[in-house]
Amino acid sequence: MTEHDIDDLGFLRTMLALVGGRSEMVQRHVSTLDTERLADKCQRHQVAGLAYLLFDELPAHVTVPEGLLNRLRAPYLEQWARTERLRLHLAQLASMLREEGEEFLLLKGLSVSARFYGRSDCRAIGDLDILVPRARAHRIADVLERRGLTRRSPRYRANASALDHVHHVEFDYEGDAVELHHGLRVHPSFRIDEDRLWSECGSVQIQGDTYATLSDEHALLLHLLGLHSDVHIGTATGRWFVDAYQMLTGLGSTFPWNDFLEARRADGTGTICINSLALFLVLTRSDEHFSTLSTALDRRRDQIVLEPDRLAYLDLLRGTSMLTRKTWSLRQYEGGMPRTVSWWLSGIPQRIAAKPEAFTEDVIAHTRTSPWEESPRARVGSTIEDEFGVDPSAFQRTVLRFGSLTARVYYQRASYLDAVEELFRLRPGGARDAVHSGNGTNTVDAIMYIFDGDRDRLSLHALPDRPVVDRPLERLVEIQQGVAHGWIYRGKSPVELYIAIDREHETPTLLLHSLMVVINKILSHQDRYHLHAAAVALNHKTSLFVGGKGAGKSTISLGLGRAGGTVLSEDHVMLRRADGRFLVSGCDSKMHLTEKSERHFFDLPLEARVVQSAGVPKKQVDMVGMVDCRPYEERQVAALFFCEVGDQFAIRSLSKEEASARLLEPLTERHRFVDPAEQQSFVALFCQLAESCPTWALTLSPNIADLSRLATFVREANAEAAAPEILNLR
Question: What is the pTM of this model?
Answer without folding.
Answer: 0.82
